[in-house]
Amino acid sequence: MSSRILLYVWTISLGGLVIGIDSGIVASVLSQKNFKTFMYPPGTPNTTSLISAIVSMAAVGGAIGNLISGLFLEKLGRKWTLFISTFFTIVGSVLQTAANGVALMIVGRTIAGIALGMLRPTVPVYIAEIAPATQRGRLIGIFGLLISFGYVVAGWVGYSCSFAAGDVTWRLALALQIPAAAILMGLSVFLPESPRWLAQKERYEDMDMSMRNIYSNEDEDFFIRSRFEICEQIRLEAVQRTNRTFGYALIELFNKRNIKRTAVAIMVLQLGCLSGTLVIQQYQSILYASLGFTGQKALLITACYSFMGFTARVGCLALAIALSLLMALSRFYGDGHNEQGAEAGVAFVFIFSALYALFFNSTLHTIPPEYFTVHLRGYGLAVGDFFQGVSNIWLSFVTPHAFDAIQWRYYSVFIACLVALGVFYMVALKETNQMTLESTAALFGDETVHGAKDMMEHTEEAERGIEMGDKDTTK
């Protein structure tokens, strides 16, 4: 694999850093005493609802951004969707930093939410379409790694800013969302467009230039074979379509041919919400307060928590099956009535984060883009992320009130979700390791340019023959 591909992938993956910082900074800011005093001073009614609105409107914006990202990815391409989403991330961050009250803070969070909602499906789609098949999972995993690193940056920025005086404690923290987005926006101009998107738009000369730019160390035979496979697979898919509009594409995601793909994308991405990880990240300050930790001590715990994010290099199917059920075992928290119980509660939060990061942080972003055909890839991830955004919305509204009413028992909801998702993954997921994006269509019964469907059927027959032979040998 060339250093040029790595350079492009790391640049695109800066979107993960942007997402991680923006998503993580809210947990630190909500804990800042000066922020609370400025936004909802003592005596302000419905403070729980105001906290919920600040968090949940970002989720509302995210869901909107998720849904429209498919249209942008299809019409403008991967490169310019990345540029536009980072631009509006900066706009939202500036409004948050300059906020003179809750209203402007909510507007800023909403705009940033829309931008990040567009960014979240764009990055894995972009990387999947330029990465070599043998390295695709690892390269998409960089996106998850930088999301985790973004949380690290946000956590320690929030803790460091707590030592400042006045409104600087939270305004500076919010302003530090801007640099990563600005760097990515500037660098995105120099990125090559996805060859697969260019082929779909029948811009073959641009496709050739893009491929030779990305795969500059490959020989001529590689270009001929790859170009033929991409173009012919897109042609085969185009024959089966009669309409290319946005509305029809959304309908197509739920027809008999694609419903399995769409269901898997939705359910895989739901893990990001229904595992409880976003609730913990966004409402850590409330959780730690219920356990008896407040002020700078809570911020320090939040910063340390962010270090638990790291990634693994294992097969997607094995990861998703193994830890859905196992992660549920880390859901036992103290009730805050004694110091030992509170410390145990924090410890299990850290254990949960470590297990989630190890087995799921990168896997969630790797699976969905591999399952869709090129014309539905952007739409498919947009819909999957949209449903995740919807879940994030209701969780953002419900969580503060649930903490007030039932405290730690609220996490029993996520235990049940993890068990159900684990069963679904065991039944529905298909292994795509080492397969090109064009050949994965055969896993869903589609015709492929190199006869992968026939090869799969032949392999299944051979496996049945081996099993029969094993039985005869046993006899």
TrEMBL record:
A Pfam entry, by short name: Sugar_tr
GO MF terms held by the record: carbohydrate:proton symporter activity
Transmembrane segments annotated in the record for this chain: 7-30, 50-73, 80-99, 105-127, 139-158, 170-191, 262-280, 314-333, 345-364, 410-429
GO cellular component terms, A-Z: membrane
PROSITE patterns linked to this entry: MFS, SUGAR_TRANSPORT_1, SUGAR_TRANSPORT_2
Residue ranges occupied by any Major facilitator superfamily (MFS) profile domain in the UniProt entry: 8-433
Top-level lineage group: Eukaryota
Keyword terms: Membrane, Transmembrane, Transmembrane helix, Transport
Localization terms from the record: Membrane
Membrane topology: Multi-pass membrane protein
PANTHER family reported in the protein's UniProt record: PLASTIDIC GLUCOSE TRANSPORTER 4
Family affiliation: Belongs to the major facilitator superfamily. Sugar transporter (TC 2.A.1.1) family.
Protein's UniProt name: Major facilitator superfamily (MFS) profile domain-containing protein
